[in-house]
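Re: the request from the purification team.
They wanted to know what the chain is likely to look like in 3D before they choose a buffer screen. I agreed to run a prediction and write the result into the notebook, where they can find it.
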Amino acid sequence: MSAVLNRNICFIGGGNMAQALIGGLISRGLPSTRITVSDPVEQVRHLLAEKDLVVTEDNASAIREADVVVLAVKPQVLAHVLKPLNGLFDGKLIISIVAGAEIATIAALAGSDRIVRVMPNTPALVQTGAHGLYATEAVDKEDRDLAGQVLAATGLTLWVGEEAQIDAVTAVSGSGPAYFFYMMESMIRAGKNLGLDEKVATALTLQTALGAAQMAITSSNTPAELRKNVTSPNGTTQAALEVFDRAQISQNIQAALAAAQKRSQELAQELSESSK
């Protein structure tokens, strides 16, 4: 973490994900005076200024003294944001958390290929994110370590070897929290239907999700082995899992993630074409 503490970091875009990263970096010792945020929304700038951050709505001035520039804007405004900054990124590492923005798209707009592409997910807001990172050979080990330190402030960081794998990361972890929320919703509804109070059903469901995840993380057993360990022959768990199997839940999950990956590929293509 020491390397990132000696860098000036600029965020273009001050939304929820940027704020999560900023909070994580500050909690790890980065002085707030080293962080600049550029955002067009006055309310966002006011909120960030209260945290003793340098705020502006001028992107060019924001990146001037930066060693690292984090792109945290909506995909549809990326070209509008970067075209006026083309050629101003010399000596700066670009970290993009823009969904669907391929490195080639960003490089053409920014005039730099020193870019790390990241697919984060929303649990970063509570410092338990899972981030997939990719960079081309234009990014050296020092820059890779630096990018990893920035993202590690809010959770797990994993590098992938090909940019196309970012679409798979999107399907598994980028969209993944929604799948678990969907399961939680269904279990809470089922608990209510079985006669539980909604608050009780909710508390039991959420704690069970947390406990199962913690067991899977800390255990030497695989999730499949953990499932088998709690599935007694002819017991209640087996009765439930047999219903899942008859409904082909596992196969449907495979199909769902494949659909998410395909849509990620389509969005990247659409963004590439619209940014030209």
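For the purification team: DSSP finds twelve helices and eight strands in the chain.
Please add any questions underneath this entry.
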